[in-house]
DNA sequence: ATAAATGCAAAGACTTTGCAGGTAC
DNA sequence: GTACCTGCAAAGTCTTTGCATTTAT
């Protein structure tokens, strides 16, 4: 996985805002803050986490707005819903292209994995089933080394 | 995917009951009915569906018991929690070994997919991360041919 | 100006839990 | 007989929705 330098994130932020504006969507301060928070988050935040981070800058933002905005961003293809987790769905705004994850079922840590063949595999599935494929999800569950030691 | 003949399902039912008994768990009529229903179900039933099917034979079985039993069977490794779906988690009692799924986001249809390399891929992930892997989940989302025509 | 977005609170869907009574062993 | 299981209802989470108010354009 290529390193994510700040410059590319700034570009991506601008590009996202551009696309939203082009579709006639309004760039409210809340939306701006949410997009920024998702992009800046190194991991795979829940809606709760996004909300908490935003409250620093925009203390009046409601959880409902975060839910609505996250759903919007997902519908627009700007972020990825990972969809697992005991405390709600997790989102990934860094790499909207799906990629495999390794998830610790003890502490919840999530690592990004690399699988070059993935697109080919999915394309083969699409061909054999006749489905028009939109996305996919590949998650591996286990116990991370740290939890194994302390467990 | 090899065809599932009735004989192998009967064997599997007996084997599951055997293992549960060996662990000192009680074989109540409700549990028996739930295991049977999960094994007999050709698809990937939700807890609601399992409950509805059981009500024919054991009309007093509560939803809570189905939840508890399904959690038990999952913990014992006898069934697989697929974990997606708008109306609750889905379960697979036919092949507790994880396998990829193709899911229609329009009508909810779920196909089982075949990927021979999957165990190797997961083993490689385990090796590179140091995780002790328990299970995995590989779901592909799209629109099935039927929905595409009528859409 | 006005159509769209926010925030609040209430409702919804799925799941878990506590406990009294029942039951497999 | 006893530890375990069931069923009920209540509570818990996460998420969505309706509507009056605010706001980006």
Automatic annotation (TrEMBL), chains A, B:
Among CDD domains, the record links this protein to: Fur_like (cd07153)
List UniProt keywords, sorted A-Z.
DNA-binding, Iron, Metal-binding, Repressor, Transcription, Transcription regulation, Zinc
Tell me one GO molecular function of this protein: zinc ion binding
The superkingdom of the source organism is Bacteria
Binding of Zn(2+) occurs at 104, 107, 144, 147
Give the cofactors, semicolon-separated. Answer: Zn(2+); Mn(2+); Fe(2+)
The Swiss-Prot or TrEMBL record describes its family as follows: Belongs to the Fur family.
| UniProt protein name | Peroxide operon regulator
Q: Gene of origin?
A: perR_3
